[in-house]
Amino acid sequence: MNVLISLDGISYRSFAGYMQQRLENGYSCCKKLITTFPSVTFTAHAAAMTGNQFDRHGVFDNIVARPETMERVALYGDHEILCNEALHKQTIFHSLARNAGTSCCIHWPMTSGNPYIHHLVTESSSKKKLKANVSVEEIDRVALHETTQAIKAGIYDLIATRFVGYDALSHQYGKDSPEAMHCLELLTTHLDQIEQTLKETQKPFNLIIFSDHGQSDVQSFFYPNEILAKSQWKQHFRNKQIRFVGDGSGALLFYSSLAHQQNKEIMAFFNQIPEVHRFYELAGDKPSACKPFGILDLKHMVCGEDIAFPEQPKYQEMKSLHGYHPANVDEMNGFLLCLGDAFTKSKVIEETHIENIAPTLAQLFRIAHPCDGQPIKDIFKEYE
Ligand SMILES: [Zn+2]
């Protein structure tokens, strides 16, 4: 029995106070799990589950645009743009199924329609079953219940569960707010209960816990489409040839049907703006349905939104956010913990990359899973 838990949105710094106790209880830990850029849920989970970077899995953000029309597409609720065979076939769930293994996913992003998952409980299906205005704590309680039931059923080789409460409350109240910290405390008791349930089966088990990205407090707001609409490129903006896309994030995707030289000029223009950290051009020409020309990384504590007049800001109440380049804003990075029969005890590793999770799972199952990442060998007993 192998269980993978994602604690959404908890920075390695916010979790540091809980690390020592887990180490004393035999967990090995990776203090810093280097996340993706942009440091957002879908991109990070795609990296964790495929072991690949976005040039291969094609998940650039939680919100993308159709390059031909500039239509903005929010991918929440597992949109078919993402949840298709090309992505599903790259996941560890596919590699496991090919080797006659079974998996169960609970509130895990981008799993809708994945035919290689044997039991699927999506977040949207749980929300539909619960009454309106249900709290995130209640959604996480469902995830906990489903997880312990799946462990007790004893029929899955891999159970993957995501807890969403901390991330949601952190956005709403701030990463260190009493609301978010109370939720974090509650999630640690959920982890204890999962560990206890695994031990009660009296069968070999492995438990991996990680966080997909951190959070950082918001200080100011930035609207790059409003800047485009007043710039020398305003006609191109009106003609829907250029557009930034993002939803209250530390990074926005830039789409363009203009010539490369013009895009370079736009990038140079934005690179002069004080709120901008760096404008990254996406190299490589791998075809992908929603690939942007580049990604605009903002400076720490600047929240970007893709509105243009007369649209009104939607995220001004948001207290914490993520998305920034993890090399620039360190608290975007998560952490990883593991406990179980295959793992060495109480070992501390300084850092590893999130795309190493899929190959690490493949190593646990002793199956092939071709990808960019590498197994985290330092946590395995067999390499001691
Ligand atoms: Zn997340």
TrEMBL record:
A GO molecular function held by the record: hydrolase activity
Record lineage: Bacteria, Bacillati, Bacillota, Bacilli, Bacillales
Gene3D superfamilies, sorted: Alkaline Phosphatase, subunit A
InterPro entries the UniProt entry points to: Alkaline_phosphatase_core_sf, Phosphodiest/P_Trfase
Protein name: AP protein
